[in-house]
Amino acid sequence: MITASEPGWQSDGWRRLLAEAVTDPRELLERLDLADDPLMATIDPRNPFPVRVPQPLLARMRRGDPDDPILRQVLASADERADPADFVTDPLGEAAANPVPGLLHKYRGRALLIATGGCAVHCRYCFRRHFPYADNNPGLRGLEPALDHLRRAGDVSEIILSGGDPLLLDDDALARLLARLEAIPSLTRLRIHTRFPVVIPQRLTSALGDLLADSRLRCAFVLHANHARELGDDVEAALEVLRSRRIALLNQTVLLRGVNDSVSALRELSERLFDLGITPYYLHLLDRVRGAAHFEVPEEEARALYDELASGTPGYLVPRLARERPGAPGKSWLPPRW
């Protein structure tokens, strides 16, 4: 078992791991003993959405396996050049729900704050890969219009920190942001959507855990893991920071061609999440963002997979199959057809 006393788990160790992330797709394949694999020829050196893979995630990939499910999620390839007409830059219509810079207000009772425009990893299917972060990343000093919007709304009880990844902010910056959110009377819950615990688990510092546990806002972490192999022993060790402070842990997954599009992969993921004290929350159909068409599992096939998963798995291990539709008052849940 990995413990938080080992190298890289110091309070600032995550910064070094972030700085040392692999950004050259050729280097990524070379480090996985795939320099001579045909996969090397599929790399698109002109891709405007760069590769970023931290070492802890790289360490979980299988050497010599061009079909590794983690590698497939992060390697830029020529497949991203495909441009079907129904794959667009804003698949969720977020531009229409962006009243002030840094804030998305799509659903009643909750709103999403763009805490930062950066991420620790660049997932190739990301629905915000074309998002105008330059116009929506005002920083802590420029958030007053967003906070004013929340105060005026009066009925927003849950604030969601997203991005990018909100844990790209250090603990001090998060503390300052949290203090400003706590001063808004209507807010009672804080939800943090993050990939950090999976890709750089060292980010879960004791200081971060204490900050969230001491807040008057009840906190939930929504992690993002798509395959059981993403959840190694280092992730398990890091999550103890949150579990020991009774912070709710949920996971959302995107159904991805060539990554987790089988009942066995989905069931293994749910079992591993349960082992780590994480509730399987959502299984999302792919948001049709330009550059990610090769990941799509058609809805009919997805529903057949889901029916089989639900029929042979305890209900508490079955995430909700969902699709987000622009303008809808919430996510569209696709329950088992039986």
Structure explained in plain terms:
With 338 residues, the protein is of the alpha/beta class. It has 2 domains: 69 residues, no CATH class; 240 residues, TIM Barrel. Helices cover 28% and strands 14% of the residues. The protein contains 11 helices and 9 strands. The chain has a 9-stranded mixed sheet. β5, α9 and β6 form a beta-alpha-beta unit. α10 crosses α11. The longest helix is centred in the C-terminal third of the chain and has 13 residues. It is globular.
Provide a compact summary of the structure.
With 338 residues, this protein is an alpha/beta fold. The protein has eleven helices and nine strands.
- How would you sum up the global shape? globular
Looking at the structure, the CATH topology of the largest domain is: TIM Barrel
Structural class: alpha/beta
Instruction: Please tally the helical runs, counting DSSP H or I stretches of 4 or more residues.
Output: 11
Strand content: 5-15%
N to C succession of SSEs: HHHHEEHEHEHHEHEHEHEE
* Low-pLDDT stretches: 1-8
Spatially, the strands of the biggest sheet line up as 1-2-3-4-5-6-7-8-9
- Gap from first CA to last CA: 42 Å
Number of DSSP strand runs: 9
What is the number of independent domains?
2
Q: Rg to the nearest angstrom? A: 19 Å
So, the CATH homologous superfamily of the largest domain? Aldolase class I
Largest sheet: 9 strands, mixed
* Average pLDDT figure: 93
CATH class of the largest domain: Alpha Beta
What is the CATH architecture term of the largest domain?
Alpha-Beta Barrel
Helix content: 25-40%
The quaternary organization reads as single chain
